[in-house]
Design a protein that fits this description.
2 copies of one chain form a homodimer.
Chain A: H1 8-23, H2 31-38, H3 42-48, H4 52-74, H5 81-90, H6 113-140, H7 149-170, H8 173-190
Helix pairs in contact in A: 1-2, 1-4, 4-6, 5-6, 5-8, 6-7, 7-8
Chain A binds a DNA duplex (18 and 18 nucleotides) through helix 3.
Chain lengths: 193, 193
DNA sequence: GTCTATAGGGGGATAGAC
DNA sequence: GTCTATCCCCCTATAGAC
């Protein structure tokens, strides 16, 4: 009773906000949209949250947790370092929708510290997992040292995030796939065996 | 007189719109903002343009023309292919502001064909220049063939566009610079001499 | 905790004088 | 071609009944 359980209304608001943040971004997401989509009445939003921003931050936190967990599954320790990176690169994606977190990078809401921190948290997590895998592979001798682990991690992540931009700009998944093929070729070049 | 000359008012509106599109994006740019910044009165905007979208498209076209010209200067033919790519990668950038065109990739206005086409035009132009340089270098024997020209062009562009996302997310230019260092290392790996 | 009703403000656009 | 005045709608938030 005491704070452990949260009402279904709150959760439905967060679910709707998560969908809308991905589909339209923060500025474009109006409280009215959230209410219509969640089927919840006007005042309830302001019972559970201080306002639109607080709701978005709650939704963002949930998205970050989900995406970090999905990333950790891709980077499971039992795989070889090279396989982890290959799986991340070749992962299934809804390319035309854009990265759930990265697509928010240009919203004015990024000026809000907690908002920006959530996006940075996710991207930093992926980048660290990538760098970690490269370092491990180099130490094990299965990846060569042509690229610095940190630089390689940033490179691979940037290709993905930039690939989303290309796919959306041309409205064509193939534009991301070409960039991805370049990254995969780089990974092959790094592979020793 | 007959259509050759455009009033100063129109140009000032476009200038203000160009600034605002870069600073805040399209959805966030209100006609009121444009008017305040340009110092022009209410009705004049609708004398020169059908509405906000038409103004933004005119501003976009101007931005694309400017940026393509700047890109063509970077890819001047008298440079070696490798130098052209290196100059593009190492180009001075306002990393925290984001790519003037690429930052619009996630706006809902991208659903408007002319809007999306402008962004795609710029990005396609850069990608072609990059691929062209790689192909030329390979034919001249100064770049090896570890990467396909098309894939390399997409890779380099995606790293830049993704680098902007990383820099903005962490609010730290260094995050883009690390990814860039990775791309530069890849370019070095491709260099024969 | 959820609802309906409502309010203030600004976004996007138009009217019409000068 | 430029200006001021004005309009309608929706965005964000609050009030208060149930």
């Amino acid at each position: 009773m005491s704070g452990a359980r949260r009402g279904a209304g709150r959760d439905r608001l967060i679910s709707a906000a998560k969908e809308l943040l991905w589909e339209t971004g923060y500025e474009q997401m109006s409280p009215g949209d959230v209410l219509r989509r969640s089927g919840i009445g006007q005042g309830s939003l302001y019972h559970h949250f201080e306002g639109k921003l607080a709701l978005a931050l709650a939704a963002l936190d949930a998205m970050v947790a989900e995406e970090k967990a999905a990333i950790d599954a891709v980077f499971a320790a039992e795989k070889s370092p090279r396989q982890r990176i290959a799986d991340y690169l070749g992962r299934e994606r809804q390319m035309l929708r854009g990265c759930r977190l990265g697509r928010l990078a240009n919203e004015t809401a990024m000026e809000t510290p907690e908002f920006r921190a959530a996006v940075a948290d996710y991207l930093g997590h992926v980048e660290r997992r990538l760098a970690e895998a490269v370092r491990e592979g180099q130490e094990a001798g299965t990846l060569n040292r042509t690229l610095d682990p940190t630089e390689a991690g940033a490179l691979f992540l940037a290709v993905i995030e930039g690939g989303y931009v290309l796919a959306r700009a041309h409205w064509d998944e193939a534009r991301m796939l070409v960039a991805l093929a370049g990254a995969q070729a780089v990974l092959r070049q790094m592979s020793v065996t």
